[in-house]
Design brief:
2 copies of one chain form a homodimer. Chain A is α/β, with parallel strands linked by helices. Chain A has an 8-stranded mixed β-sheet. In chain A, strands 25-26-27-28-29-30-31-32 form an 8-stranded parallel barrel, surrounded by 6 helices. In chain A, α6 packs antiparallel against α7 (175-193), α14 packs across α19 and α23 (588-612) runs parallel beside α27. In chain A, 53% of the residues are buried.
Amino acid sequence: MSYVYAFDHKHKRPPMQMKDLLGGKGANLAEMTSVLKLPVPPGFTISTDACRAYMKGGWPAGLDGEIAEQVKRLEKAMGRKLGDPKDPLLVSVRSGAKFSMPGMMDTVLNLGLNDQSVEGLAAVTGDERFAYDSYRRFISMYGRIVLGVDGEVFEHPLEEAKAKAGAKSDAELGAAALKKLCTQYKAAVKKATKKPFPQAPADQLRGAIEAVFRSWNGARAVAYRVREKISHDLGTAVNVQTMVFGNRDQNSGTGVGFTRNAATGDNKPYGDFLVNAQGEDVVAGIRNTEDLDHMKLHFPKIHDELLAIFDRLERHYTDMCDTEFTIEQGKLWMLQTRVGKRTGAAALKMAVDMTRKNGRKGAQWSITKAEAVMRVSADHLDGVLHPQFASKGKALAKGLAASPGAAVGQVYFTADDAVAAHNKGHKVVLVRSETSPEDIHGMQVSQGILTARGGLVSHAAVVARGWGIPAVVGAEAVRIAGKQFHVGDTVVKEGDFVSIDGTTGEIMLGELKLAAAEPPAEFHTILKWADQIRKGKLAVRANADTGEDAAKARELGAEGIGLCRTEHMFLAPDRLPVVREMILASTDEDEAKALAELGRVQQIDFEEILEAMDGLPVTVRLLDPPLHEFLPSVEELRIKKATKGLSKREKAELEAAEEWAEHNPMIGTRGVRLGVVKPGLYAMQVRALLRAAATLRKKGKNPIVEVMIPLTVTRDELALARSWVQAEVDTATKGMKNPPHITIGTMVETPRAAVCADEIAEEADFFSFGTNDLTQMTFGFSRDDVESRMMPAYLEQGLLKRNPFETIDKDGVGALVKMGATKGRSVKKHLKLGVCGEHGGDPESIELFYEAGLDYVSCSPFRVPIARLAAAQAVIGDAGSSTK
Amino acid sequence: MSYVYAFDHKHKRPPMQMKDLLGGKGANLAEMTSVLKLPVPPGFTISTDACRAYMKGGWPAGLDGEIAEQVKRLEKAMGRKLGDPKDPLLVSVRSGAKFSMPGMMDTVLNLGLNDQSVEGLAAVTGDERFAYDSYRRFISMYGRIVLGVDGEVFEHPLEEAKAKAGAKSDAELGAAALKKLCTQYKAAVKKATKKPFPQAPADQLRGAIEAVFRSWNGARAVAYRVREKISHDLGTAVNVQTMVFGNRDQNSGTGVGFTRNAATGDNKPYGDFLVNAQGEDVVAGIRNTEDLDHMKLHFPKIHDELLAIFDRLERHYTDMCDTEFTIEQGKLWMLQTRVGKRTGAAALKMAVDMTRKNGRKGAQWSITKAEAVMRVSADHLDGVLHPQFASKGKALAKGLAASPGAAVGQVYFTADDAVAAHNKGHKVVLVRSETSPEDIHGMQVSQGILTARGGLVSHAAVVARGWGIPAVVGAEAVRIAGKQFHVGDTVVKEGDFVSIDGTTGEIMLGELKLAAAEPPAEFHTILKWADQIRKGKLAVRANADTGEDAAKARELGAEGIGLCRTEHMFLAPDRLPVVREMILASTDEDEAKALAELGRVQQIDFEEILEAMDGLPVTVRLLDPPLHEFLPSVEELRIKKATKGLSKREKAELEAAEEWAEHNPMIGTRGVRLGVVKPGLYAMQVRALLRAAATLRKKGKNPIVEVMIPLTVTRDELALARSWVQAEVDTATKGMKNPPHITIGTMVETPRAAVCADEIAEEADFFSFGTNDLTQMTFGFSRDDVESRMMPAYLEQGLLKRNPFETIDKDGVGALVKMGATKGRSVKKHLKLGVCGEHGGDPESIELFYEAGLDYVSCSPFRVPIARLAAAQAVIGDAGSSTK
């Protein structure tokens, strides 16, 4: 077992591809050293293997030996020794996971200094002040980070020393003061840790390495991984690198540089630089940095050398890189590089730009359109699709990021108040415990929605995403009482301004400034390329329930409607009473009358949707939710009964509500089961749909209708439902010369439907995987109950790698989707397959759906661009893996 | 395609094995004719293939031709022709499905008679009265059964004729009167059907056959198949057989005979006989029948011949047969035979008896013990295990048969009233809408339990089965209002007597007489043999939560506890307040105090159970249900708040109840999720369990403990829960020389756990499939909601073949169980596998579990004997199929 690799180790593959083993930083250091032969201070990487071994069984056997060997090699190469009292070698120790991760131990500099070697450093540099400044920095850094000593014990003596010397900044302290500080620091460490500050460099090194390992499981690091969906199993690498000093003299300096502008994407190097400084000074922002043009004035030759390296890096990585570099007494050293982070706008611009000619004459390079598509992420698109805050405020509380984008408005606590405020010209953020269909009118007029309860598929979240309204849900710290809410001691009253960030889940007080959100031209270019790539392989549809949503979806590139939920049409204020008539009907006649009226209005809805999607397929799902959702609450009526008494109508409503009440409505009398219990219902819906299609055909349009049965569990159930639909189709098309082809299919959303997909396929023209419900039933997770209550704990403790309602659970739910697809196609080779859960808009899930052989994904209109991109990426990724 | 087979057709296999094709009656007629060469009136069978073809696409092409050919063959053999005006051939037409089925068309006799052939019959028999009596019987029978004419139109003229002739019975009517009746009957048919009575024998025959086919889908037949779990796809055969007449003269007669006594099992032929009569007279019970000893007086030779045939039949079928026979003018004809139905007691006695020497000297036969075990069914055992009604009353209403056995008592409507009545010495039937844990004390003292709502796994059903109390649940016709209930117009008041049959679901008014219920000695013999057969192959455990239940289970042959639910221990009136303390605790200290108190009482419960199961494994499931089940109802508290106001304690309870309330508790915060949310809970339970085991070990007992984690969905979740348990085990066994081996496993009850069983097995010593919840989640069927509301409709319409909560759904849930077993064992070859859902006591499900490789099934104590039998039958069935 080999745990440690020098930067110049001869790997079999390019080190930049070995981030799993070497971490991101280590891989790039090795790449720069062994492949690009850039001036990198020598060093070595302790691999993630070692970290994983450490997490499993403590400090790995043999690791000490390997480290000692590498240190010896380093010492030989540098001609100096760690801890040498005459001319000591100093090293830095940095963490380096596969993905850059805040919350982990960052850096210990100047390791190797002790009471003897500090003298040697002073002697060899001829600069006692520099030596003791380095030593006191090392003691405090090591004390804080490795030994866990409170930073204040170092602050206090420093302030004292400065006061005593009348110094404004640390830099004004002389050698003697710094020397004294070192003594004070060591005493402070001893007091806090009951042990003297470690003097042996080997002990220092092992301590620092172990601290990095430990920091992998620190609370902040864990929370970050949960948020960023990074596996807790990866572990981190540790990089040990020879120190170079940008703070030696005026002929030294340090900086960070980007090969292009990471904010705008402009093809112009960009950076921050300081003369006679260490890296932390640049980052800390204590001194005003200079840009690269200014650096040129001080170091014209090195500036050119740096720009040549930038050019080299871009050509090598075929991407924008960010770097850290140091000049030590006139010599340039590259301390690290990586493919740089960028804003959404920059990512799009760079991706498009890089498909053209890049780099210096004679060494030009470009990327393919497919590569360009791979360079853009869902977050990048979100960044240009939705408004964002120009700058961030301090978060008052945090909930689930339910619908992306930034919103600013005055808080109102009821839908009616929200509408009233909106009508007065106010910008509204609607704040509710949870929303229900009765809040729709208030939600519609809001800039943003905030709820204290509910998960990512709660009513508020689903509706907000559907309409592209930013939303934060399940913010449990928000306690609502009447027309105000409080978070801890902070009270927010009706009319107060808040700013919510639906991309991060943060809630801020006051009015934050918004940045503009008009997608740049490159947005359309990239999506055009994505569409070319995925054409004929994976289509993208939208979930839309109204003509307006359908039109929006089409504008955003949807190639059809994958899910038109007919229940939303039942909840409009003018329809709900009719729905209740239907449920309360005591005679067949009354029921038929109510059904006919519902059919009439539903036909109008269908016409609007089919018209908006003219020539594209529209999948209409027949009524799905349990009937009690259309009735008033049993509890409210019972309370009213116990207090004010009930009217005759209310008594009837209570009786019906009690009759239809369910213990577990999610798995109760809904979907096709309703069709069995109320046979006229589905027939009415199909009639309305067919009439709408006929009306449009008369207008010369081309409506394409697919009828979908929800919640099927057996073949015979689907056969029965199919027969109702077919009977209506037969009646409607009787005698037609070219009757329209109406396909009839089913949701696959129960585990049984997936397991028995072969028998169910016999009766289906298509399947649409309803991965929301499939996830609920496969896990036994009622999303309304578990998502805000349990999910955070489950993710933090690593019991789940991902929230399975956001990204499909590959091994469980994903396996069932694949089983359903395979079994379905085993019976009908060309069975059309799609997905219409929330996962239809999630890039990782889309990859799995493509793998499973699905024909299309369907998601909310505002996710369509992301799905188009992700679908193309899935196609490219798959092509890549098949040619390997 | 061949649709029709003569009784003497040479089949490749013994016809008695071909019931799928020929139906039960046809197969046995063919067996008697072609194999046993018994005197059977010739005829032919129209196969079930023809019926299935008819159901699919109407009258099958080619069937008419095949029938005509067979008729010709019959006519040739008999030397007479159908409809011959001189000497007509007459036939009977009977349905004959694979399983005997009431509700289907039974029999049309004398077919072939018409206005001409009746004269021929009169001439050739020299008996005009006989001829016209046969004709009028045929017209009315055919009219009613085939043509659907109301029976009254025939009754009326008959009564008139009798009145006119001053006759008391039909037999006193003369030829002229009968002739006139024929004319009246034909007119009545014409009036009702607008067509003359069919005269052409071919038309008559086709009409009768088609009527049999149609009757397969008659409402009663469908309902019967649902109840008896017979597939709707089988179809029925039709038997056409030459008529013989037991009513020709005093030298003729007819009877039914059993080769042994079907009620007691005594090895003595038994039967009913009538001289000069047709079969329907015996069955109708109009005349007093004679037994076989009396028959011997009239027909000594034929009696001996019949007994010899009985002997032949028993030897051939190696079982008790029932028969119908007719003597026509001194000649014995066998009309049908089949393996006879029997009571539970008879089944047991016969099975045991038949393993000894049977039959006449020189032709003795016996069956093996394995065959004897196969002869006994679950219903047979139920019949001797639970009290039954001696005779049946008219059912007032019908619910679901939730817990078998008959009960008689006075109705009471609250648990408290039930207890009070019981204390006064009354026998009680507790009637509730639904029961809840708060009704336990009333249920305990009841003879029987009746609920208006809830399904087969409702609280009432599960508790009643656990205690062996007869119960009928979900009787939706029962409307409870205060201290009375009504069904339609019938009102039943507190204190009124009712009789309920938990085996059939029937509710009768008044006190029905109970038959004794002490299992006969053969019960124990058969189960002993069953145990020998299944030993080492499929063990049987019980689900029991108390020492008392555990002792009962052991007495009934349980080999351990497969499921000890710890929540029942929390619901006792003295514990519930402590549980609430735990939930309401505002400080860690209060919570710890409540947990300690719970641990103390739970330890006592565990001691009792472990003691009862000394030396046998006891699987203890840690707390499973959502916490709100231990709190008062939110709604009740809110109503109280709106009316009377709440106390401080009640306010706290309301807050907690609201906090823990769930939209879908079945798939909410329960099982191991609770453990994650309240980490101290599981540790406390394990501590109590380990202490109980230690106490028993000190007493020299041998407790065997298995700890089970409920509702696992991921490996990491199980690993975490396992670590809590292991920590307690380590603490408890620290320093022991021979520490007891405590195994730790999990329920597999979510679809995900089954699909991902390989990863979960890594952390499990055993799996127990929780098929109740697995069924709920796989179908998305909340049993509380769908079982009484939807299930009946689904079963009747054939959307489900079986209630999947009674018999495991082979293709869906069963496939997941098999997947879970296979995947689990792919990781751990010797992973112990069991099942503890309700299905653990269902014979058909047990067969699947054995096939899946499970080590044991676990069921309620009173199902243990049935499970032992079914397990042995599964083993035998499997051995049979593997040697085929």
